[in-house]
Amino acid sequence: MSNQSVAPLPSLATLSIELRPALSSGGPRRFCSVSASVMENTRCFANRFSDYKGALLPGQGGEAAVPAVVATVDKILKKVPTDISDCDGGLYDGPAGVAYMLYHVSECPLFSEHREVYLKTAKQIIDVSVRYVDAEPDKNMRAAFLLGGAGIYAVAALIYKSLGLADFVKPLTKFRNLWEVCAPINFLECGSDELFVGRAGYLCAALVLKQKLGIEILSKDQIKSICQAIIESGKQYARRKRKPFPLMYSYYGTEYLGAAHGLSSVLQMLLSYQDMLSGAEKDLVWQSVDFLMNQEQNCNWPAELGAIIERENELVHWCHGAPGVAYLFAKAYLINKKPQYLDTCIRSGELVWQKGLLKKGPGICHGVAGSAYVFLLLYRLTGNSKYIYRAQRFAEFLFTEEFKAGSHSVTSVYSLFEGLSGTVCFLVDLLQPDQSEFPLFSVFV
Ligand SMILES: [Zn+2]
């Protein structure tokens, strides 16, 4: 996306890679498990870009970027499956994530001439996913945010509303009814509280809906009971495992810290609803936030509690590490303006600038776009244009031969979290940085 080269994103379908962890039997899938990639020696490309010197990059405005985004959307639409038998993966790596991307692009005024076609296509895609998840026999999977029904119903409601269809209340009602499923304290054996399938995810989806539809989604009592279940679950786990801090959780037996399945996104959701918490509950949450802040090891967090980070092999991903944990501290800073939370975010951004040109594809979960979203977050927190510049450099890198040749392929090249749909969301957000936010994971609400 420099002056010289506005090309479609590189083809990523030529190499094989282990990106997609094996299916877990007897419960929701586990994505981004740490062991899937510890054998790699070098996780990122060297960042050879010079840093910000007071000027943004020319040639990255709408004139250049809009055609590149449109071409990438066309490419995605050629790859996305449309059959009901291919709807697994939810928003994370199923077709539903493509529907969200189309919705997101259609909301940006720069793409107004494509709006109608994108929204209609989004409706076709999400309708198939809704039918698929309506037939899902496991009610717990219907309540899952990123991997199951809750996210699909939420995105269906957004798309229907944007199309002006009064029918948006149908998926919204299905979403609301899932509240009962995830209220019981141990509703999932593998761990009931994390973001992808657990209660934090359900709260996150409700937050997105409230933000974008402008209406209350759940009653105060419903929100309180979910928050209380998360807190009670964390207290019980921390007590049972004799942890020296107030709240802790595990997913499939691992005490994750990062955004994907870990403590940081659980705490982020509790902060997002802190008005619903009692004084004592708030204290527990803030103590846990500070506990997690103290787990930092040179601008990063280990994937699991207590692990020691090896510099050469560290995970700098949204799913595991600083690029995801940063959102918790951004939320904390936005609430109480304590400088240590902002400083923590800024340090995370420095690490991402050094090690965020990831080789695991273009996506937002563990790819270059996910790294670059940290810069957009920092821009919104600080107003410093340096961060737009850095995001521009990462966008530029996505279009280089070096990235094309050295990046691993991903299984679902169209997907929102691992593939190009998340990349498209990032490229669109780079055009409107004042409104940018990591897809479905806002702290500015
Ligand atoms: Zn990941």
UniProtKB/TrEMBL annotation:
GO cellular component: plasma membrane
A Pfam family annotated for this UniProt entry: LANC_like
Residues annotated to bind Zn(2+): C319, C365, H366
GO molecular function, one term: metal ion binding
GO biological process assignments: carbohydrate metabolic process; peptide modification
UniProt keyword terms in alphabetical order: Metal-binding, Zinc
Family to which this protein belongs: Belongs to the LanC-like protein family.
PANTHER family: LANC-LIKE PROTEIN (PTHR12736), LANC-LIKE PROTEIN 3 (PTHR12736:SF7)
Protein name: LanC-like protein 3
Annotated source species: Acanthochromis polyacanthus (spiny chromis)
